[in-house]
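Encode chain A's predicted structure.
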Amino acid sequence: MTNPKTAQWQAMSRAHHLAPFSDYKQLAEKGPRIITEAKGVYLWDSEGHKILDGMAGLWCVAVGYGREELVEAAATQMRQLPFYNTFFQTAHPPVLELAQAIAELAPEGMNHVFFTGSGSEGNDTMLRLVRHYWACKGKPAKKIIIARENGYHGSTVAGASLGGMKG
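Encoded structure for chain A:
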């Protein structure tokens, strides 16, 4: 190691951080790779290694890192209305404008959007919607869902179970 902080961060990780989907024996022996910087499609670890981020964060940074126009748009929105839910008959202009833009890109008849905070939530919501749909159609016993075996469908019990993941 060339960066003295790497060992410190790895010790902090061992002491306090649970890393999902990790080999804990290997993690205890080698410690985690410490990611310290990102730009475009690249990451840098604490040792200065440049890494192509083929996973796009965890499939949630498809537009790349360090996009100033996104930083500015987020900062502007954070100053006005950083968050509010859309439950209980509530909406707000940013969610309505984005829902309309997505609906305009979708195939005919797919004109409603349900926002979630993660893919895991999205898949859990899909399961609930499918069950509700078939119950409304008078077929509540229809509950078979087709998913990719060993596919990553989220980290919740329902999402992980879709792909047959254990533990």
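The longest helix spans residues 119-136.
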